[in-house]
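hi support,

uploading two proteins for the ticket. first:
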Amino acid sequence: MKISNNLTDQAILEELGGRLAAARIERRLTQAALAEQAGVAKRTVERLESGEVATRLSGFLRICRVLGLLERFETLLPEPEPGPMAQLRQQGRTRQRASGGKAEPGEKKKWTWGEPT
């Protein structure tokens, strides 16, 4: 099942729990072994896998770490990219003002109404 905004919170929790259970089984770990390696109670693993909401996020992270899934959070919440000004500052360059065409030195043309900008 694809996780989307159309699903209820409970449906998403159950889907995530099922995915965690599949990852655990793929690594041939029992719930007890996973709990021991993650430093959480076996009941925490049971709750996560069943989609119960009475678990703490820290327990979820510990279990994901043991299952080798923690790096996938980078895809979920990537580090924000620096904006254009920050990129210029990082490169040591100063901002340049955007301008139209360059006028010859000493030549000034006065703008008048109806003239294209």
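and the second one:
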Amino acid sequence: MDQEKRICVNCGKAIQGRLDKKFCDDSCRNTYNNKQNADTVNLVRNINYTLKKNRNILEALVREHGELVKTNRDKLTRAGFNFRYFTHTYQNKKGSCYRYCYDFGYLELEGDWFLIVREKDF
């Protein structure tokens, strides 16, 4: 029986065993799959890092000044706050839209001012 020589998709070594086998061992299989998923994993990791950083900035302001805090865009930006990322929004009865980073939120006011709040349900 003439068998075609099969090689590992990851490292190029010869494969022995089942005919449908693609990798020489578990290590090569894991390495290959980790490389394939790296872009997605890094994207999610970076977004989560930014969300946590935003939350920590809001938490520090609330902890320093009390329940409700009013601050300006410049102070948030200097602290490293990224306005593109938030976890969810809440619209109150008046129509104001709060953006949240987990349990801390902010409401954009007039003139680059923001009201920082903590969600009480958490």
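thanks. also noticed: The CA atoms of residues 5 and 40 lie 33 Å apart.
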